[in-house]
Design brief:
The structure is a single chain. The protein is α+β, with helices and mostly antiparallel strands. It has a domain of 30 residues. 22% of the residues lie in helices and 27% in strands. The strands form six sheets. Strands 2, 3, 5, 10, 11, 12, 14, 16 and 18 form a nine-stranded mixed sheet that branches. Strands 1-4-9-8-7 form a five-stranded antiparallel sheet. It has a two-stranded antiparallel sheet with strand order 6-17.
Length: 459
Amino acid sequence: MRRFAPAMAALLAWACASQAQAACCYFSAKNADILQPAQKAFITWDPKENVETFTVQPKFEGNALDFGMVIPTPTQPKLHEMPRDFFKHLAIYSILKKREFPHSKLLPIEADRLRLFARAAVAQESAQGDSRRDSQKKPTVVVLEAGVVGSLDYKIIEASRADDLFQWLKDHKYSYSGDEATLNHYIQKKWLFTVMKIDTAQMKRNKDGSFAGEVTPTRFQFTSDKLVYPLKITQISVKDKTEALFYVQAPHKVDLPGDMTYQYTWVPMLQAAMGCTPDGLPGKGVVWLKAIEGRVPVLLQRARELGFNFVSGQRPQPNKQGHIPTTMEWARKLTAEDIKVLKGEGPYSEKVPDVDEGFTQADLKDMQRAQAIYKVIRARLEKARQERPFGYLVREAPTDDVRALQQLAGHLQAGLFITKFRKIFARDEMSDDLLLVPARYNDQDDNSEYEEILPTSPP
């Protein structure tokens, strides 16, 4: 059995049969451009069973009436429909928490003083078939499967020659103007191609007639001996760069290899936060810095050589080559308590005590009564300080969105690590497929977590 890994979706302009003469090209045809400025991917990895699942939701921009996705995979995948708002649920679940302290609106002087203890700003999460006939006895392009998943028609194709696959796409009104070399890259690895038709009528139309939107996510399940996210085919649909947001669930924390690692931003962010967190760095940050302290200068020197300059509280800027370092957005080894949050059996956020509860501004009009009220409020504040000297970990989301997290149940599992990281790929960084690796540096495993806003966190 061939081993394989799921691939990133690539766009393919799809021309209607009734408009064959207006057939659009692959991401570059005049008046029919299709671009992929961003994508979200949820990947799960089971190294014991050699099973990888891959859910992708690309963002599209363009003006073609119909188009499709081409997803190369080394063997025949199993397809499953996923909830339309799957990635919105993941975003809500992974909102970073912030520290909050109880304060009184009825004690204005003390309230101002208490606010000085508050650390960090509000976290904002952008939650947001037929094979071609030819003269050969054995066809070089074969449709292995055709069907519907959700609202998407799909075909799974096997091809042994890039030129014949190129012709097949043309014959079946996929007007492909990409290079055969990209197809051949996957054919040489004996991968298959899943083609899915996209209905642009469901997408938002701009004033100029172009559209923008995201496709309903679909899950592909494979066996795999490596955790791979192919980038090469996506390169064709990228003008200058594409922003990828990864959620990877695995037995260990995950990173990108080599100079794509998020350690160039993660380590200096932890270092800069060291003196600003009175209760110490959360999530084993200190343990991680201690484990690699002898090699931190080497890591930071390499970051400087690459032109990756960390600035506290800011998003990283591109270097001279237009490359932007990867950033870790959220990381946690899930527990049984985390799964309870998904099921609605546990609190989504801690609750800050309302020390003014039961009193109003009107109650303070009587001076004698006001003094008694102030005494009660001060006692409540002192109790909260003693019980939670470093504040309460809170995050905010609409009640309906929190309730909808139940749609993640079954997809997220206790005992596994979820690593959320963001990488803006420049086009020249997408010349080969991407191997995802265990998070480590200098032979030390990185098990640090990131679920709380640090004073040095970017917005």
